[in-house]
Every structure is written in structure tokens, then in C-alpha cells.
Amino acid sequence: MVPQTERYQAFVKLGAFLREVSPVLTGTREVETSDDPRKIHFLEVAERAVLENGWFTLENIQQALAAWGEVLRPETLEKWLSGYPARNGRPGNIAIIMAGNIPLVGFHDFLSVLLLGHRAEVKLASADRLLLPLVADYLTTVEPGLQEAFCFTEGPLKEYDAVIATGSNNTARYFEYYFGKKPHIIRRNRNSVAILNGDESREELQALGKDIFTYFGLGCRNVSKLFVPENYDFKPFFEAIEAFSEITGHRKYANNYEYNKAVYLMSAFPFLDNGFLLLLEEASYASPIGTLNYEPYQGHAQLQGRLGADRGQIQCIVGRDGLGITPFGQTQHPALWDYADGVDTVDFLLKT
Predict the structure, then answer these.
(1) Cys-Cys with 224: which of 19, 150, 287, 297 at CB 3.0–4.6 Å?
(2) Are the CB atoms for 121 and 162 separated by under 8 Å?
(3) Hey, is 202 helix, strand or coil?
(4) Do residues 219 and 340 touch, judged by C-beta distance below 8 A?
(5) How far apart are CA 248 and CA 259, in angstroms?
(6) Using CA atoms, how far apart are residues 317 and 337, in angstroms rounded to an integer?
(7) Where are the chain's structural domains?
């Protein structure tokens, strides 16, 4: 199933536009008076989004736009959808409840719903209420028929055939209560981990730094925990990630780092500190901002058994072939078929 429809073509055009506009956001290409006014509008709205959400930066928004620009290409879309059958039946009204932890975090759901021919009723997170409408507005300029294909709502969801909702473990219980009688995908908290052998190169450890620090570690695809061999020497790791030390120039990250450091000191928790990241030996997968948990392992077989048992808590496993599924440095570059929580959104929508 490769829907060569007006919707499909609109997303292809969006991809080309995002590849052009994303460099403008970070000044790698100056805005020119001859530029498409829509590029200038994207920059203005991105600046407003930064003012509304202290965790958003122009660099992070640029990264999100650039990442979507790269995958919204005909060859990638065709590779993604070619293995699915054509959808039969009437279009449905699909409610999408989005998170707002990183820029455009719910765009994949929006894309999937529209490409499958459904209508999207979107409830935006207050932390990210500008960027998706900005992108959606571009879609309607290149394909006016899409104006009837989605809406953004602030009130209660009423008329819907299915629900895709993303939130925390606490909100998931709320979602289950209200939406459990409808076909649904309900996503909960997940974290990503990295497995180290102890012989990783400096380049591999620097790439791991991207998995840890991109979007300040706020995404479910950010590595929040390391599994390391017993008696692991963290010195090469700290030296390799020194390039990310400027992250403490961001006020909110720095405040969280200093707060967590004070808590660990007052609680007499042993930890490692390189001046911008705290390492805490901890069994939990979730770590506070500015902190990275770690846990020694005795053998790969034992570790794989542990990770298999906890698969429902894990989004990405980073490491070399044979240990990790995701290569170092690639957690924030998922393919269209890398579904959140491992739930096939397209298959769900085909059956809705």
C-alpha cells in the first residue's frame, strides 16, 4: 500500500520544504528578503515556541524539523508503506492526544492517520501547542483539501472511532478509564538504555553523548541508563562527552543538575560528577534531568534476560551489533517503521 494521493504528495512537499527551512532556524543560512514568506513565518513561530516552553531551543526545533524533512521523501515513505495492504472501509475519526516533552513528538501519529485516509482530531500538549499547527498549516497551503482532514481541539473529545494517546504512567490510567471501550493505543513512560563493553572507541562514546543530551534528555528515546561491565572505568566516557559540557549554559538544565547534585550530597548517595552530568548507580531505568543511571552487569546472557523481562519499560537499546538494536548516536533518528512502544500504528489504523 503506497497511497499516491493528494495527502501523500502534500507530505512529500512538506519534507522538501522542511529540508530548506530548518537551516534558517539556527542561522546556518540567513533569511533573505527574496525568501518564501512561509520560511520567515516558520522562524517567527519557532521563536514564539521557545518563549512558551523553556525546554525548547531553536537548535532543538531545527533538529526535529530537519529529521522529519529527511524521512518525508518518496523513497522512504514507499519503503515504509509498501508492505501493508490497501485499507478498505470508510475513513474514521481518530483522536490523537499528544505529549509535549520534545518538539513535534506526536507528528508520526498525525502523519500515519492522514496517510491512511482518516481524519485526525488532535489534542495538543500545552507545552507544544504551536509547532504542529504550523506544519499542518503548510500542508493546507499545498493541498487545500486537507483542511477537512484534521482539527485541533482544546475541549473534551466527543466524536471519535479510535484513540492514540501518549502520556505518563499516571495519565495512562486516566486514558484507559475514559477510552478503554474504543480501539486505542495508549503509550506510557519508557526509557532508553545503552550497553557498554568497556572497549568502545572515543567516537562511539561521543555518539552516545548525542543519545543522552539531545533535547536535554527529555525524550523516551534518550538514553537514561548505562549497563556497564563490573569495575568499568568511566574516565574515557567522561573525556569523550566533554564536548557536551556547554549544556549547563541552558538555565533549566543547569538548575536541575545543581538541584539533583544537592539532593545526592545531602542524602549521602555516592555518585560520579564531571561538572555537567551526574552518574548514579541505580536499578531504575528512569533518571532525573542531569543524571544518568548506571548498573554493572556480569555477563551478556544475564543482561539480555534482564532486558527481555523489562522490555515493556524500554524504548531503545543502544550498543554494538549483537548487544544493542540501535547504533550509537542514532536514537533521535528513528525510521518511520520504528514505532513508539513497539506498537505498529499503521496496522492499528488499517484495522480501524
Answers:
(1) 287
(2) no
(3) helix
(4) no
(5) 13
(6) 16
(7) 6-188, 191-318
Element (H, E) at 184: strand 184-187
**Span 191-318 CATH architecture:** 3-Layer(aba) Sandwich (3.40)
Q: Please report, in tens digits, the pLDDT of each residue of the chain (352 residues total).
A: 666 689 999 999 999 999 999 888 866 555 555 467 888 899 999 999 999 999 999 999 999 999 999 999 999 999 999 999 988 888 999 999 999 999 999 999 999 999 999 999 999 999 999 999 999 999 999 999 999 999 999 988 888 999 999 999 888 888 998 898 999 999 999 999 999 999 999 999 999 999 999 999 999 999 999 999 999 999 999 999 999 999 999 999 999 999 999 999 999 999 999 999 999 999 999 999 999 999 999 988 899 999 999 999 999 999 987 767 899 999 999 999 999 999 999 999 999 8
Alpha-carbon separation of residue 235 from 241, 269, 311 (angstroms): 10, 20, 30
pTM: 0.94
- Kindly report the CATH class assigned to 6-188: alpha beta
